[in-house]
Fold:
Amino acid sequence: MRRSITGLSNPTVKYLRSLRDKKHRRREGRFLAEGLRLLTDARESGKLPETLVMAASRDPHPLLSALEEQVEAAGGEILEVTEEVLSKITGKDNPQAVAGVFAEFDSSLASLDRNAAPIWLVAQALRDPGNLGTMLRTGDAVGAGGLILLDNCADPFSVEAVRASMGAIFTQRVAQAEWEEFVPWLRDGAGQLVAASLRDAQPYREASYQAPCFILVGNESRGLPEDYEAECDLRVTMPMRGRADSLNAAVAGAVLAYEVLAQLAP
Structure:
């Protein structure tokens, strides 16, 4: 179905705008993604938006045409809107010419196949959506199976996290769980839990990693709780040659992921 919207008070506009808020996303089970690159990454990963929102004044582009055709063929809705309406939906003064509404993915631990990849990233109480998006990008880069979010993490389906993922939200599996749920799940099968830590840790390049390897990083300011670290099979540290006593959480995860990749890659 295709239709045009010009009024800011249109109920559809209000609904789409509401998806920028976490409580409405959770209620609807839907999230927004903005920009042709993001939506193209989604399409190439086999995921199409249920609703495609396009600026009526957009410039033609073959990727946009391909996206439009596939959404229409799949029975999705296509909305042509004014730039003012698109700005209200996205919350940006200078919005990109296209946005999409996607159904949230199954984010249960039960949906994961731990043997699908040798590396998995795990974050505990990660609060910055930019760091969350960066970890998704890292996971995509190293061929990880996905990102497991523990305890009270930032929403992976927020506009900010989706944008920061640069499309990796569509290529990486995302699971959300509490620590008390994650540990029994992990111990019920193969899996080495490795923490980036300063407590009783060995140099990360001297450690021995095993697949599937679950790389655990903690909260940006507090790090991991001590009892969480005690549960880990391996604790590793990275050298700090300057005055800083630790790396950014997402950066630490990336450095460690590449070391694990170097050891486990065939």
Notes: The chain is about 35% helix and 20% strand. The longest strand covers residues 98-103.
